[in-house]
Design a protein that fits this description.
Blueprint (H helix, E strand, L loop, with lengths): L1 H13 L3 H14 L4 E6 L9 E4 L3 H9 L7 H8 L4 E4 L9 H12 L4 E7 L7 E7 L3 H31 L3 E2 L2 E2 L2 H11 L4 H8 L3 H15 L4 H15 L1
Antiparallel strand pairs: 1-2, 1-5, 3-4, 4-5, 6-7
């Protein structure tokens, strides 16, 4: 167990992007004989998209996010309510869940997500986040694994959240729109009055590449000029303080 946890920490420390963090958690979960995991971080701003990293089937995650199930999902509702980890599954769902919520559980089961163990994270720096370890198996078997590894899974969830927030989400939301690291970096320099050529020299990239990232940032923010995008960035930073 010590080796699994140490390898997990090392992977997160070395990981620089979403794919690396996903791989680090996936490997650790697999070493503990767990089926899959999902990380969900709710946004600070209304109407912004949540941050989602998981090894769930992509068809399910696309369907889930497209339908904004994060606001219906009884697991998310419970995680939002308090910090205590909990187990869940259709056969253990509370009687008071609604019919749409029960259908959501049924849909998830079709993708091999039948039961889970969720660790809510309320760190005071955002609405909340949660890490879920899920399985497609009988709850008795899954529960045995959770009883064995529950405390380690809680630590893993907290470590993962800390790294994801610092490396992927920190200061990269502009009016609820998430920019890539390079898009945000280029836009920050543009907001300081630098031209695309100067940004390229500063960041060690070509002028053309700097323009490419600025164009992507403008498209995501729905504006037509770099000046407008920079203004949105500066306004967003003032609001977030």
């Amino acid at each position: 167990m010590h080796r699994v946890f140490q390898t997990f920490i090392d992977r997160l420390a070395e990981g620089a992007d979403e794919a690396a963090l996903r791989t680090g958690m996936a490997e650790a979960a697999a070493a503990l004989d767990l089926h899959s995991f999902a990380y969900l971080s709710m946004p600070r701003l209304a109407n912004a998209e949540p941050q989602h990293i998981s090894t769930y089937p992509s068809a399910w995650t696309t369907h889930y996010l497209r339908n904004h199930y994060e606001y219906l999902d009884p697991v998310v509702v419970r995680a939002r309510a308090g910090p205590e980890p909990f187990e869940w599954g259709l056969d253990a769902a509370p009687a008071q869940i609604s019919e749409p919520q029960r259908r959501l559980f049924d849909e998830a089961a079709q993708f091999g997500i039948r039961c889970g163990y969720t660790v809510p994270i309320h760190d005071g720096r955002g609405p909340f986040a949660a890490v879920t370890f899920a399985a497609d198996e009988r709850r008795a078997t899954f529960r045995h694994r959770i009883e064995q590894h529950g405390r380690v899974l809680q630590l893993m969830a907290m470590y993962f959240h800390a790294h994801a927030r610092r490396k992927l989400m920190s200061d990269r939301l502009v009016d609820g729109v998430r920019l890539s690291p390079r898009e945000f970096e280029c836009l920050e320099w543009a907001a300081r009055g630098k031209t695309a050529w100067e940004i390229g020299c500063i960041l060690g990239i070509s002028r053309r590449t700097a323009v490419f990232h600025l164009e992507n940032a403008k498209a995501k923010l729905g504006v037509h000029s770099t000046i407008q995008a920079a203004a949105r960035l500066l306004t967003s930073k003032r609001i977030m303080r």
